[in-house]
Write a structure and sequence with these properties.
Largest sheet of chain A: 8 strands, antiparallel
CATH topology of the largest domain in chain B: Rna Polymerase Sigma Factor, Chain: A
Number of helices of chain B: 10
CATH class of the largest domain in chain B: Mainly Alpha
Mean pLDDT of chain A: 85
Order of helices and strands of chain A: HHHHHEEEEEEEE
Distance between the termini of chain B: 21 Å
Radius of gyration of chain B: 18 Å
CATH superfamily of the largest domain in chain B: RNA polymerase sigma factor, region 2, helix turn helix motif
Helix content of chain B: 55-70%
CATH architecture of the largest domain in chain B: Orthogonal Bundle
CATH class of the domain at 186-293 in chain A: Mainly Beta
Number of strands of chain B: 2
Oligomer: heterodimer
Helix content of chain A: 40-55%
Largest interface: A-B, 46 and 74 residues
Mean pLDDT of chain B: 76
Structural class of chain B: mainly alpha
Number of domains of chain B: 2
Shape of chain B: globular
């Protein structure tokens, strides 16, 4: 017999690691040579000392009480005699009943504890799952809140830029409109038509959109107190001149700067004229024309 | 027969932890075995005080072993309870020719713990948790931390010292064989070594442990 092989089998047997053919072979070895039993036993004893290598742990005090209670409740040491007296038998029967009850209670206790442990595990798992879901939702909430804040910032910026653009467009529109209105203005210079006012000069500007104009004259002679200068707008659509109203001049230098409106709607201000009329003017020119546009 | 050791595990003035050290672990091996055998003789007579004494002598290493295998205090307590009840019930079957009482008790504890371990549905996970690659103490610290040393007797310290002196690969193989609840093939897979190598490591490690303990104890 190979001694190393025996020791190997004995060492594995010390930890109950033998199976099948090896187990049968080892049993046969011990059967053939009882001296090997002691060697195998010594290895098993050495293996059992590994119990001291486990990290130190002290069992709870109640475990001892529980063991002693179980021993007292359900178990007696093996009897020495096969003959049992009736009173003893009765006591044994009572003890057996007690043991059965204790065993039943113990089983109930163990079952309940196993069930409680399983429930505890399930609760722990559920709590973990819940916590995980909460964490995920919280993370998503934070991300969404950040995205919303970003989007709101972008909207605010876009709104601001849009308002700027609107203001620019409005300004441009006004500038374009002003330029367009200016293009439509009718500007005329009026010159003396009579020899009595050779130095007189006037400029008339007509805004067709607003249907009003501005007349600026200079060096017109001073009139008698019962006379007024009257402005006229000549539009081909009307058979006669349309009154633009009377105006007074500064007697010192013969100037005037007046805003005027026509009595009728003017489509084509072809010419402007200034005549000398009776005080207050009239619907049609009666006096001589003093100034006429070119 | 208990020897009491008072240790200050907490800062001064906060708490004193009283820990019990079994007198069994300071006895000579032959005295130890003889006392254990006498307790079994008393238990056969129905002496529950003998069971209580046996509990004081065996409970800590048995509980530590079961806890190491199962990694569950509640289950370890159940195992220790069942083992002591078995020892009580089968005390008449004890025979010194078949080994020491302590070896018998350890075998019962280990087998029942492994049975429970294997019955769990989460076996693979739990084995990984309960069979780490070291022996549960810092190698550099020699035979364990101060608390463990204070809580252990001469026998436990001698065993720890003997195991610490083994080559690492033998130590790991013995640990997996004793605490892991694994088959030979599973140990080989776990260590990623050929089966023959694992067997040889277990053999050499156990022989060395036996020889060292024989000299020391």
């Amino acid at each position: 017999m190979n001694d190393d092989h025996f020791e190997e089998l004995a060492a594995l047997a010390a930890f109950d690691l033998l199976e099948g053919a090896e187990k049968a072979e080892f049993a046969a070895m011990l059967e053939r040579d009882p001296a090997l039993r002691a060697r195998a036993l010594a290895l098993r004893e050495a293996g059992s000392t590994l119990a001291h290598v486990a990290p130190a742990a002290i069992p709870p005090p109640e475990l001892k009480a529980r063991i002693l209670a179980s021993a007292a409740a359900g178990v007696s040491a093996p009897a020495k005699s096969n003959l049992i007296a009736f009173p003893v038998l009765l006591a044994w029967a009572a003890a057996a009943c007690f043991a059965l009850v204790a065993a039943w209670m113990g089983e109930l206790y163990m079952g309940s504890r196993a069930q409680a442990r399983a429930l505890h595990d399930e609760m722990a798992l559920a709590a973990l799952t819940l916590q995980s879901a909460r964490n995920q939702m919280e993370a998503e909430h934070i991300i969404h809140r950040q995205e919303l804040a970003d989007a709101q910032g972008q909207v605010a910026e876009a709104t601001h830029r849009y308002a700027d653009s609107e203001r620019q467009i409005t300004a441009l529109d006004q500038r374009l409109k002003s330029q367009g209105d200016l293009a439509n203005f009718k500007i005329s210079t009026l010159a003396s038509l009579l020899g009595n006012t050779p130095q007189a000069l006037a400029v008339a500007v007509w805004d067709p959109a607003r249907q009003q104009g501005v007349l600026s004259v200079s060096k017109l002679p001073t009139l008698a107190k019962n006379q007024d200068y009257q402005l006229w707008v000549i539009d081909p659509q009307y058979p006669g001149p349309v009154s633009g109203g009377v105006f007074a001049i500064d007697p010192e230098n013969g100037t005037a700067h007046v805003t005027f409106k026509a009595d009728k709607l003017i489509k084509t201000p072809a010419k402007f004229a200034v005549s000398r009329e009776a005080k207050g003017g009239g619907d049609s020119p009666k006096g001589p024309i003093v100034l006429l546009s070119q | 027969m208990l020897a009491w050791a008072v240790m200050a595990d907490e800062p001064a003035g906060l708490a004193w932890v009283v820990r019990m050290t079994s007198a069994r672990e300071t006895e000579l091996p032959e005295d130890r075995a003889a006392i254990d055998a006498r307790l079994f003789g008393r238990m056969v007579q129905g002496d529950r005080d003998a069971l209580a004494e046996l509990y004081d002598r065996f409970s800590r290493p048995l509980y530590a072993t079961s806890l190491r295998i199962l990694n569950d205090p509640s289950e370890a307590q159940d195992v220790v309870h069942d083992v002591f009840i078995s020892l009580w019930q089968k005390s008449a079957q004890f025979a010194t020719e078949r080994g020491t009482a302590f070896s018998w008790a350890v075998t019962l504890t280990r087998n029942r713990s492994i049975d429970r371990l294997r019955s769990r549905q989460r076996r693979a996970t739990l084995i990984a948790e309960s069979a780490p690659t070291d022996l549960g103490y810092d190698e550099d610290a020699g035979a364990g931390g101060a608390a463990d040393q204070a809580a252990s007797g001469d026998q436990a310290l001698a065993v720890r010292s003997a195991v610490a002196a083994l080559p690492v690969e033998q130590k790991v193989a013995l640990e997996l064989a004793f605490f892991g609840g694994l088959t030979q093939q599973e140990i080989a897979q776990r260590l990623n070594e050929p089966l023959g190598t694992v067997k040889a490591r277990i053999r050499r490690g156990l022989l060395k442990l036996r020889d060292t303990l024989t000299r020391r104890l």
